[in-house]
Amino acid sequence: MRRKQIIVLVLVVTGFLVAATFGLKTLENVSYSEAFYRTIYISLTHHDNFKMDAWPSRVIIILLVLASLIMLAYLLKLFGEYIIGLGDGLKRRKVKAKLLSMKDHYIVCGIGRVGSQVARELANENQLFVAIDSNPDRVKEAVALGYTAFVGDPTKEEDLHKAKIGKAKGVVASLGDDSSNLFVTLTARQINPDLFIVARANREENITRIVRAGANKVAMPNQIGGFHMATMLIRPHVIDILDILSANKSADLQVQEVEITHHSRVSGHRLENILKHADGISVLALNTTSGNSQVHPTGREVIYTGDKLVVMGTKNQLQSLQKLV
Questions:
Q1: So what's the pLDDT on residue 244?
Q2: Residues β-bridged to residue 108
């Protein structure tokens, strides 16, 4: 597009210079070479040094000065766009370099009203992720915030491969319509069966379809927002505590999910014995590999590889537990 603009500009300037040269040659009764020299001189200096007193000649002089100023302003505009393009190109190269080394990351498909909030929360949690959106302006905003993002169609398999979906550990399908989220879920599950997929749904009747397509969890933003507002109204102090815990903005108290890995030394031990070495930690829930969830476990449960503990404690206490596990 810029090349076409430059070609048009060159043709317009050439045509204007030729017309001005012919006009000065006729009005001032000079040779073509002299008329061309005067045209170039006036265009570059914005000054008539040839004492041309005829009003038609003066009109040509004024038009030459105005045209040269307009051309200069246009060239500055093109130069500014070129510099901005260089910056955008550098950012794109940085994004490509990041993608080459990405693994165990999350993919956010769509960074609109919901997806941008997902990206913000992942960034606050220092989680590695890449965002895909078909809107260039949204991608620019995401890159400006320091996120790894690129312009693409999340429903296309090739763009999911660009986001290194084969090495990812989770996908968020947060596009605006349910059919697109269904397609993203289905495609992502086929490419990487081990992914944890969270999909957005706008209509309740589509939840079952998206789950059948392979989503682990389905969220309805309108339903969540309504529940949150109702809880604010009925139990405002409870929601304040939940907001602090979910946002992890409090240095004193945080909630985390801790997974028992394959090489963990606590695998096969009772929960109460583990907690003896993690003073101050409260276990809110135990999610076993069999799919059972137990809220506020007694402590007599045996912990195995793959089980997940939802725990609450201070930052230091949680770090100690992570080291223990």
A1: 60
A2: 131, 172
